[in-house]
Every structure is written in C-alpha cells, then in structure tokens.
Amino acid sequence: MVMHRLPRVTKPHYVRAALGATFVACFMGSALPAHADPVNGDDLSLTAQAETGQTASQEAKPAEKDRIDVTAAQVLALAREQIGIRENARGGGTKFQEWYANSQRAQETIARDGGHPAAYLNAPWCAMFVSWVGEQTGARAQVGWDAYTVTHARWFQNNGRWGTLAKPGAVVFFAWNGSKSLGSIQHVGFVVKDNRDGTISTIEGNTGNGLVEERIRPKSQVVGYGYPEYAA
C-alpha cells in the first residue's frame, strides 16, 4: 500500500511559451496545483485548452495503416526493458525525449502548438515514452504518437478505440482527482494487467522520481483506455 506523503518536487516551472500554449504533457511545477497527484507527485497536464476541450480538432493524424503484426506482449516487453531509465537533474537526457525532438511528430506538434524542437529535450516525457515504444516496436499506427496526453487520448477516441476496460497493452490515461473528462488527463502509461482488486499494474515513463517504473494504480484514477489494434 502506498503511504500518503507530500508530493516530491523534482522539476522547476516549465516555461509554457517554449513549446507553445497547448503543450504541457505530464507537467510538474515547483508550485503544485490542487489537482497534482497527492501521493506520488507524478506528471501533470495543465492547459486552458485542455480544460475547454479546444484540442479536439487537433488530433494526431493516424499513420498510414500498416499490416498489424505487433502483439501486446511485444510492446510490453520493450516497455519493461526500459524500467530504471532516469531523467537527469534538468528533467531531460532520456532517449525518449531525444527521439521525439527529432521526429516528424515533433514538427507537427510545433505547427500545432508553436515552440522549438529543442524544448522537448527537457520537457515532461510520459507521452513521449509511450510514443517511443510504439515507434520502436513498429506499432506506431496502433499506439499513436504525441507529447500531449489529452491529444493522444482524443486520437484514440476519434478512431473508435476508447473504452473503460483494462486490457494488457492498452494505453491508460490518468487524472489524479478521479475525473473522467479527457481534458483532465495528467499522465499516461501502458496497462500490464488488471489485478481484479480495483487496481491495475502499469509501466509508465516520467513517474515517481523521473523514472520508467512498473506501478500499481487504483482504477479510480483512470480516465479511460486507448486500445491499439494489436495482432492476436
């Protein structure tokens, strides 16, 4: 059982202008808002557009549909291999951020949100971790890619791949206050399994002390699940 404690603050305020007004994925500041994770101090997503739903028409465009030959087990295996990877003291230095900053998707995100690719190198990276795993396994068309958790969730929803059942390999989106609104999403990871006791096991990036970790989360904090179309 996780004991309640004050959130651990590890990152300075992120300058929103560096990436544009709509990008704050898994944000964590030195002055934590009321809806920060009261237990773990994990990632936050705070933008006015997220709260008003104005990003609904700015979804990531699905990649050209490839043959579906990647399984949930393969995706989870690669995600698990990343456990223990830690960000540096500046909140950067991970291969997930470096990959995203140099990706086509970063250019598309900048066109949407403004900013510069280098800003991603020290930006919160939970969604970049999920996107990187999808890319590296060849499942990008199924997993999607974005650095902004709300947009990523809406991509699943708009493609008819959104629901409330925990399935291995699903992309899980969290709001620490228990909200079920997509605009309230603050964090993202992969489902490992439903523990059948009101919790799920997950693999997440940029959680805890800026690590990739396997966690146990209460379902009450889940906004919903995105379902990649994995091979059987």
Report on this structure.
This protein is an alpha+beta fold and 232 residues long. It has one domain: endopeptidase domain like (from Nostoc punctiforme) (endopeptidase fold (from Nostoc punctiforme)). 25% of the residues lie in helices and 16% in strands. The chain has a six-stranded antiparallel beta sheet. A hairpin with a 4-residue loop joins strand 3 and strand 4. The longest helix has 11 residues. The radius of gyration is 16 Å and the shape is globular. The N and C termini lie far apart (34 Å). It holds the Pfam family CHAP. InterPro entries: CHAP_dom. Keywords: Signal. This is CHAP domain-containing protein.
Tell me the CATH superfamily: endopeptidase domain like (from Nostoc punctiforme)
The class by helix and strand makeup works out as alpha+beta
Tell me the number of strands: 6
Give the integer mean of the pLDDT values.
80
Helix content: 10-25%
Distance from N terminus to C terminus (CA atoms, Å) equals 34 Å
The CATH class is identified as Alpha Beta
Question: Could you please say which CATH topology applies here?
Answer: endopeptidase fold (from Nostoc punctiforme)
Strand content: 15-25%
- What sort of overall outline do the alpha carbons produce when their principal axes are compared? globular
Describe the strand arrangement of the main beta sheet, using strand numbers: 1-6-2-3-4-5
Supply the number of structural domains: 1
Topology as a string of helices (H) and strands (E): HHHHHHHEEEEEE
Number of helices: 7
CATH architecture: Alpha-Beta Complex
Low-confidence stretches: 1-25, 27-64
| Radius of gyration computed on alpha carbons | 16 Å
Largest sheet: 6 strands, antiparallel
Protein name: CHAP domain-containing protein
Signal peptide: 1-36
Pfam family, one: CHAP
Keywords: Signal
